[in-house]
Amino acid sequence: MRKILVIGSLNMDQVLQIEHIPVAGETILCQDMKLVCGGKGANQAFTCGRLGCHVEMLGSVGQDENGSALLANLKGEGVDTLHIQRLPDYPTGMAVIAVEKTGNNSILVIQGANVMTDEAYISANIDRIQAADAIVLQLEIPLPTVTFAAREGKKAGKLVILDPAPAAELPDELYHCVDVIKPNETELGLLTGMPVGTAEEIERAARRLLERGVGSVVVTLGGAGAMLVHNGGSVLFPGKKVEVVDTTAAGDSFTAAMAMFLTEGYSLEQAITFAIEVAAVVVTRPGAQSSIPNVDEIGEIHELFI
Fold it and tell me: Which residue range(s) make up the domain with 168?
């Protein structure tokens, strides 16, 4: 079985159910609060494991209850956590996620131990990159680490997938090391400084990333689906109409599902179609990792592509 290596963040999420996102100076009452295992990297590794992939994760947690819970949750889905470091001097990362009744959310991240997922740590685990077929990265760990890991993955001939969230200005070197970048519309606009209000604008902005060296751009469009832009042209993939409960982890599950299909030898077009199906299940459920469908549910979707 081919192997995916996820390098990224692990956070314990405080998920708040609220009527609406407060404006400056406004106090509102929270209707409910739950602790849910999360972090963009952990969400993607968890999804890969739940989809039945051979997946390993590199990252950092504290020596605290939250760190133990996150590791146990990943192990429960078959994720190899052997090389995740536990740090006595840093708390496990946390995120405060406010979910409106519409299902949309706003997220504040407290990085904690994630800041110690640094280049020295990756260097000490360089054999994990060499043992993988695909490397999946995000931006909730230090940017120099992401760039270093992508460079090492590219040098080793691995498929490198970047989920550029939270969006930040990225060095040209990183773009040149990325085979597939997966921003949403907002992130694409932040990365390029270009308007993304229409399909034509989204395609133009995505082509700017191609000019910077990326192999292919997959822009997620929420309920509207996704757009693939590469040197051969562009393809718009329609979304699925579902009742949205919580959009948390929708993007992470999309990235993981896409990575799974690509490592299985499917085309990028097939991988995107599968990822849309998976993400459409996720948004109908509350929470991050708690919303990921299990392998039996995904098996029914997977069979559509065989």
Answer: 3-24+31-305
| End-to-end Cα distance, the chain | 17
Longest dimension (CA), the chain: 54
We report the CATH number of the domain holding residue 134 as 3.40.1190.20
Closest by CA position to 122, among listed 154, 83, 159: 83
Bridge partners of residue 230, in order along the sequence: 233
pLDDT tens-place string over residues 198-211:
999 999 999 999 99
pLDDT in tens, 216-252: 999 999 888 999 999 989 999 998 888 787 766 788 9
Q: Which residues are CB-neighbours of 243 under 8 A, at least 6 positions away?
A: 284
Which residues are annotated as catalytic? 252
- Measured in residues, the chain has a length of 306
Rounded to an integer, what distance in angstroms lies between the CA atom of residue 160 and that of residue 88?
31
Round to whole Å and give the CA distance between 288 and 283.
9
Burial class (CB in 10 A: 0-12, 13-18, 19+), 25: exposed
The number of domains in the chain is: 1
Residue tagged 């109908």 (tokens): 284
